[in-house]
Amino acid sequence: MQIELMYQHAYTLGRIRLAKGEQVRVEAASMVGMSDGVTLETKAMGGFMQSLKRSLLGGESFFQNIYTAPSQGGEVLVAPSLPGDLTILDITEPMLVQSGAYVASAIGVEIDSKWGGSKSFFGTGGGLFMLRAQGMGQIVVSSYGAIHEITLAAGQSFTIDTGHLVALPESMPFQTRAIGGMKTFLFSGEGFVVDLTGPGKFLIQTRSQDQFLSWLIPKLPKSISSSSSS
């Protein structure tokens, strides 16, 4: 499988080239197009319970789509729903991915929800669960806005707003907390943050879907009641 990312960084399109008989797993509604002869099969990957957990707790679809290339090979085009970037992760160790960021992956990569416990209980972006990617192969993840990589040395820490975290190694320690005192928490607009500690690399996104919705929803027109007073 070969992946090419085009039109970076605002409206990235992923082109996945497949050899004869090769397969790729794609999140529902992420397919933009496919070449002639590529076939599609929809499955509840990992069985009913794992699919249900991934859907209810990880924010992904219950069913996932498996695309198979014909004898001459083929390609599948993928893109996220939000304007932003795509990046490719080579999975050699388990990775935690923000809920909703998963787009596509090699068949050799298993995607499951991961219990974050109290560490991510207050996370506004990932909620109680993040997706866990493990196995061997490549995975395509998306962001809202551009993707920025941060590298930490051993013992070095960095603080990120929870809505901006995209992916991190499962082995990287992190702790979610409220920022500042009660006044800061209530009125600063920051809310909860996550402290990450090196060594390792992690990815953040330059925009937050939650912050965008907080800006947008108050500006939407109010619904008008169908009943009128006489």
Can you describe what's shown?
By secondary structure, this protein is mostly beta strands. It is built from three helices and 19 strands. The protein has helices spanning 48-58, 182-187, 209-216, and strands at residues 2-6, 13-18, 23-27, 31-34, 39-43, 64-68, 74-78, 86-91, 95-97, 102-106, 109-115, 129-135, 137-142, 147-152, 157-161, 165-169, 174-178, 192-197, 200-205. A six-stranded antiparallel beta sheet has the order 5-6-3-10-13-8, with no helix packed on it. A hairpin with a 6-residue loop joins strand 1 (2-6) and strand 2. It is globular and about 55 Å long.
For the sheet with most strands, the description reads:
6 strands, antiparallel
Write down the overall mean pLDDT: 82
Instruction: Give me the Rg, rounded.
Output: 19 Å
Please give the number of β-strands: 19
First and last CA, distance: 67 Å
Q: Beta-strand percentage?
A: 35-45%
Q: How do the helices and strands line up, and which of them pair or pack?
A:
Blueprint: E1 2-6, E2 13-18, E3 23-27, E4 31-34, E5 39-43, H1 48-58, E6 64-68, E7 74-78, E8 86-91, E9 95-97, E10 102-106, E11 109-115, E12 129-135, E13 137-142, E14 147-152, E15 157-161, E16 165-169, E17 174-178, H2 182-187, E18 192-197, E19 200-205, H3 209-216
Antiparallel strand pairs: 1-2, 2-7, 3-6, 3-10, 4-7, 5-6, 8-13, 9-12, 9-16, 10-13, 11-12, 14-19, 15-18, 16-19, 17-18
